[in-house]
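Quick sanity check, Tetraspanin:
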Amino acid sequence: MFGKLTGLVIFGIGLWLRFDPAISEFIALHGGSDNFHIVCYLLIIAGAIMSFIGFLGCCGAWRLNQGMLIAFFIILIIVFCLQLACAVVAYTQQDFIRRYIDNSMYEAIQEYYAINPQYRDTFDRIQNEFQCCGVKSYRDWLYSSWNRDVVGHNELGIGHSSIGKVPKSCCNEEGLRDYPTNCGISFDKLELWTYEPFLNTKGCSDALYDSTYNNLNLAIAISVIVGIFQLIGMFLSMLLCCWINTKSHRKTSNF
């Protein structure tokens, strides 16, 4: 029963990662959709297999079917090895994932937001959904090509201006209430920090990373717990097989 429930949880996490529009669209824009989709489908398949294994083990134990128990044992070993490999990869690649998210977001803000509507729509959706602004903070928009049309705004580098606008999707509830039509895009009259009370101050990199890895860490923790139960299940299934085999030999010898 525990294996079936765990399988359903992992299955659900795979579906969430695959079909969440903010995450999947952002990954797709940066050419990482193939690998990302592979990971999602592996989680979905793993969850379905774990649910099937749990059902197979229950049936084998209930019917005292030696063949089903042996199949349960073999599949359990394979899934255990795959879970261990996936958990190790997910844990060791966290720094790489964070750097990838940071670099991709900086690139999107600095180069593509101003000229590519698809990037603009996706980034606005992320900022709205996670109530965040920029990569690390709203100040990242000062370095954006979208901001280079602001009078007095210098090119990137030392001496850049601290005056600049931000997208409307950066605005918090107070900003949208006080500036209902031009929040963010009209913040180019004074230094940007003076408008901070009207902006979401959390960076989107941390928000997106936390959202993704909170679910992946949950999957890793569940996999570790399930792994312990799988080892117990392997031992008990072989013990039950031996008992069934001994019982059948006794019946044969009695005849």
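Posting the structure with no commentary besides this: The CA atoms of residues 79 and 232 lie 14 Å apart.
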